[in-house]
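Milestone 3.1: sequence recovery, worked example.
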């Protein structure tokens, strides 16, 4: 169990944001290995500052780690969290292989968003480096006004799935995959596992970026976690963007990288 490995848990009825609470604990000198869980959030957020719906009945959890790896490897934690969360949800759903990961770290069920992960970090005044991995799982409710289809565990299972049950599995799988990652030394194993869970691998995808949308065949992620697309002109490496699945165009033309 995570508690046996020195991880601690602080539960709140309500927070503005579990990620913000984690960073506040870090700035106050917390040693890390701390889970923050809230029944509801008033200012939950996703990547790029998007609003994350945080109703009571869903899981809102963040894990604070202090100096988990050299700062240049910190982004790898997002892939660790994605693998751990996907495995936790597959276990709850009796091994359901329709649970997949959309790059970089959204967890889907049959193509619908089930979970979002937000990784944030901060250099602390005392020289330590703090990372917070926030995990939001739709356990009982999901928003209906999103650009991409969403779902929740209770709808999938056909009966209520409590956030506490999901957290129990997540805290265990996270501990395991953090050990596999080994502060970055084991990222090759994390990458291989992530690719085995990847949504759209080998398919035609688009990646929306602020300046343009790039399309191509999703070939792999590289050793740093960048998305590799195959285009007629060659391979393109994508560091950030929102992936969407689109039909392959009739012509061989693709957007520039």
């Amino acid at each position: 169990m995570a508690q046996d490995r020195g991880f601690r848990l602080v539960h709140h009825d309500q927070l503005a944001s579990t990620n913000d609470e984690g960073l506040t604990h870090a700035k106050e000198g917390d040693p890390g290995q701390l889970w923050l869980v809230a029944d509801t959030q008033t200012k939950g957020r996703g990547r790029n500052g998007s609003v994350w719906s945080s109703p009571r009945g869903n899981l809102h959890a963040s894990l604070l780690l202090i100096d988990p790896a050299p700062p240049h490897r910190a982004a790898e934690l997002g892939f660790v969290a994605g693998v751990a969360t996907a495995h936790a949800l597959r276990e709850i759903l009796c091994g359901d292989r329709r649970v997949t990961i959309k790059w970089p770290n959204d967890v889907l069920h049959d193509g619908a968003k089930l979970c979002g992960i937000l990784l944030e970090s901060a250099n602390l005044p005392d020289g330590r480096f703090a990372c917070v991995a926030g995990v939001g799982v739709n356990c009982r409710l999901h928003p209906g006004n999103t650009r991409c289809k969403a779902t929740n565990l209770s709808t999938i299972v056909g009966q209520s799935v409590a956030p506490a049950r999901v957290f129990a599995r997540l805290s265990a799988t996270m501990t395991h995959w953090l050990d596999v990652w080994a502060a970055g030394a084991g990222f090759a194993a994390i990458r291989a596992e992530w690719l085995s869970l990847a949504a759209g691998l080998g398919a035609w995808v688009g990646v929306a970026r602020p300046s343009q949308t790039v399309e191509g065949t999703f070939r792999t992620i590289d050793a740093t976690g960048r998305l590799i697309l195959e285009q007629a002109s060659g391979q393109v490496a994508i560091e950030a963007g929102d992936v969407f699945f689109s039909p392959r165009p009739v012509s061989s033309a693709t957007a520039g990288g």
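The chain has two domains: 3-197, 204-245. The longest strand covers residues 112-123.
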